[in-house]
Structures are given as structure tokens and as C-alpha cells.
Design brief:
This protein is of the alpha/beta class. The chain has 11 helices and 12 strands.
């Protein structure tokens, strides 16, 4: 999903700028139109920091190629006034079918869908994605072939693809941005590895960011423009959506709350520090805590055991402390909880809600809703499908 940031000091027209600058600006405009939704030319010009004439020329080029579409602004909406009515720009959805991949730390999910995002078939498998990058990529290819066969369609009908990766992605390179998270992926180019196996060019994104997109498109965030999506599974990651747009940070790594230090003398974390949130709270930690009682954290009946309810509630309260601080900083409308821990039942969610309610700034106008996902562990996959469905390119087959 990420693209290199252009040099916003460029003021040349598309005809006089270098080919590299031209390509970067085109890519940046497409990303902005995708993330912001219907947007006017003047809004684009202000956001990208270019002269209106340069933006207009680039938009005209994208319109001619059919990558974007324009429609009249609603009465009283953006650009309305006494002058000529503004038009709003949006991405043109691709013809044909799309595919979405969700790589978790311990699973792979793949789906094929229509260009409108209707799922035709999906499959998943359990695998140590962190330590077995090659095997995980091969298995993802096999799952793609399986869902295509189930849907009764051929690979040639695919026109767009997106994949969520469970690690921070450097927005300049689209590679894993941490040497300690997904260690076996660090020297790989995920986009090229997927292209080599499938023949498709993929849009890549962090899994939590795709989870947020899945919630915005299909789930609990459809009515929110400012929210925090939290994926609480083997690790703890978050995505920040501000004013309807995903905030990635300067290098695409915003939302890494799992490495917030909770206890300086606590357990060692895979990032090399001690007492990080995800070293204290994760589905694996909960599983180890409940193992002596032979309780499965993914079994709803087991999670009503008195010890399980206490473990889950305390885990939620710990995550909630970090989220309360974020709520004080960002003042979101909602926190949406996804991942395996959010699927264990109400006790984890109640614990998060308890901390947010007690530690975030009080007052009816500042209350933040804490909501468990209703997408049953599929938010990241559905977000990948939504991203692919919004990809403007007419054909992405390599």
C-alpha cells in the first residue's frame, strides 16, 4: 500500500520534470486519492504541495488512462459555492477478479473476490510464518491455486492483488522494517517473491493496517472517521485512522504499540528490549498461563472458567493502559479490537474497556467506544481484498 514520498519542492509541470519525479508524483497522487476517498483537485494540490496547474495536468493524465474517475460534488459538499461546481476524484475499480493474502505470524489466509469485493472462495492454513518465509510464500501460492479452483476461475482473470504482512513495512522499500520481527523475511523483497510465484504484482501493507481497512469496508468502523484498530494475537499491533485516512508515520511504521515498554525488568521481548507489551500480553502468553488447567484460549466454553476470565480480563486491562494513553493523545471515536485475543470472548474486551474508561480523559464528549470486531478473525484478509478491489490499475499481471 505504501509508496515513496515525492520531493514536494518540485514545481515543474509533468512535461518538464524528470521521468522519475513524474512517476513518483503519479504514484503519490493515486495513493492520496485512494486513501482520502472522493477528493477535489484543489484538496490534492494543497495536500501534495504542488502548483494547481501541475496537479491538474497529472490528474488529466490519470483520467485519460482510466486509472481514476470523477463525479460531481454533492450540493453543499467539498468545493460547493457560487462558482462552477467542483468535481471529486476517486479510483476506478478494476475489471475482473481480485485476490487478497493475509500473512499472520502463525497462519496464512487467501481469498479470491469480485472487483466489488464479494468473496468467491477463501482458504487458510497454519504455519510458522515468522521462521519459514520460503515455505509460507510457497503455501500462499498453493492456497491461491486452491481458491481459484474452488471459485471455478482461472489465474488469467485476476486483475489485482494485495497482501498483508505481520510486521512494520518500510514505506521507502516495502521490505520488513525490523530485523527482529519476521526475521526470516528481512532480506527478502516480498513483492518480488510473490510476483515470482504467482505472476501478479501485489500491493503490500502491514496486517494491522489491512485490518483497519477491513473494518472500514465491512465491519465495525464503517461509521467512524477517527479510530484505532488493534490486532492482538501472537503480537500486538495497531493501525491509526485519522480523519478517515490511515496514518503510517514517516517510514510506514506507526502503530507498533506492541513494543511499548510496560515493565523495564520484565521478560525479554523479541525486539531486544525488556517488558514490552507483547512480551507480557499475547495469545501465546495466555495459552501458557492456562496450559496447567488444560484450557484452550480459542475455545469459548473454556474461556468461561474462573481462572480464564481473570487472565483475559487482566490481559485486556494491560493492553488498555497503552490504549488509554493513545486515546488521550489522539481522541479517537473508537478502539476496535481484532485478532485472536478479541475472539476469546467478552472478558478481554471488557478489560480493555475498563482501563480506557478509567485512564483516558473523562467526559461524555471524550468517551471512546471500545468494540470487538465482528469479522471473526477475517478483518486483515477482507482488508487485503478491499485494497485489491480499490487498486486502479486495469491489469496487474506481470
Amino acid at each position: 500500500m505504501s509508496t515513496p514520498e515525492p520531493d514536494t519542492t518540485i514545481s515543474a509541470t509533468p512535461r518538464s520534470m524528470t521521468a522519475t519525479a513524474h512517476a513518483l508524483l503519479r504514484s503519490h497522487l493515486v495513493t492520496m486519492i485512494r486513501d482520502a476517498g472522493p477528493v477535489s483537485r484543489s484538496e490534492l494540490a494543497r495536500a501534495i504541495g504542488l502548483p494547481r496547474s501541475t496537479t491538474t495536468a497529472l490528474v488529466a493524465e490519470l483520467l485519460r488512462e482510466g486509472l481514476i474517475a470523477e463525479s460531481p460534488a454533492r450540493s453543499g459538499g467539498v468545493g460547493s459555492g457560487s462558482g462552477r461546481p467542483a468535481t471529486l476524484l476517486s479510483l476506478r475499480k478494476p475489471d475482473g477478479l481480485v485476490t487478497g493474502f493475509d500473512f499472520g505470524h502463525r497462519h496464512i489466509r487467501v481469498a479470491v473476490a469480485t472487483g466489488e469485493g464479494q468473496i468467491l472462495a477463501e482458504e487458510s492454513d497454519q504455519l510458522d510464518v515468522d521462521r519459514q518465509a520460503g515455505e509460507a510464500l510457497d503455501r500462499a501460492r498453493d492456497l491461491l491455486m486452491l481458491v481459484l479452483d474452488q471459485a471455478g476461475v482461472s489465474p488469467d482473470e485476476l486483475r489485482a492483488a494485495a497482501a498483508g504482512i505481520p510486521a512494520p513495512l518500510n514505506s521507502q522499500t516495502d521490505r520488513v522494517g525490523s530485523p527482529t520481527i519476521l526475521a526470516s523475511w528481512v532480506d527478502l523483497d516480498p513483492r518480488e517473491e510473490l510476483r515470482r510465484r504467482t505472476g501478479l504484482n501485489f500491493t503490500l501493507g502491514n496486517d494491522a493496517a489491512f485490518g483497519a481497512l477491513g473494518e472500514m469496508t465491512y465491519g465495525a468502523a464503517r461509521d467512524f472517521t477517527d479510530f484505532i484498530y488493534v490486532k492482538a494475537s501472537n503480537g500486538i499491533g495497531a493501525a491509526l485512522v485519522l480523519n478517515g485516512r490511515l496514518y503510517r508515520g514517516s517510514h510506514g511504521m506507526a502503530g507498533e504499540i506492541g513494543h511499548t515498554q510496560i515493565d523495564p525488568t520484565g521478560a525479554w521481548c523479541r525486539c531486544g528490549n525488556r517488558g514490552c507489551l507483547e512480551a507480557i500480553v499475547s495469545i501465546d502468553v495466555v495459552r501458557r498461563q492456562l496450559e496447567p488447567l488444560d484450557l484452550d484460549p480459542l475455545d469459548p466454553q473454556d474461556m468461561e472458567h474462573p481462572v480464564a476470565t481473570k487472565v483475559l480480563a487482566e490481559s485486556g486491562r494491560t493492553v488498555g493502559v497503552v490504549l488509554a494513553n493513545l486515546c488521550n493523545t489522539l481522541n479517537p471515536e473508537a478502539v476496535i479490537l481484532g485478532g485472536d485475543l478479541a475472539s476469546t470472548g467478552v472478558h478481554f474486551t471488557d478489560g480493555v474497556r475498563d482501563s480506557v474508561r478509567h485512564l483516558a480523559q473523562p467526559g461524555p464528549a471524550l468517551d471512546t467506544a471500545v468494540i470487538a470486531t465482528g469479522l471473526e478473525g477475517r478483518a486483515e484478509l477482507l482488508g487485503a481484498v478491499a485494497c485489491a478491489a480499490a487498486t486502479p490499475y486495469a491489469a496487474l499481471s506481470a
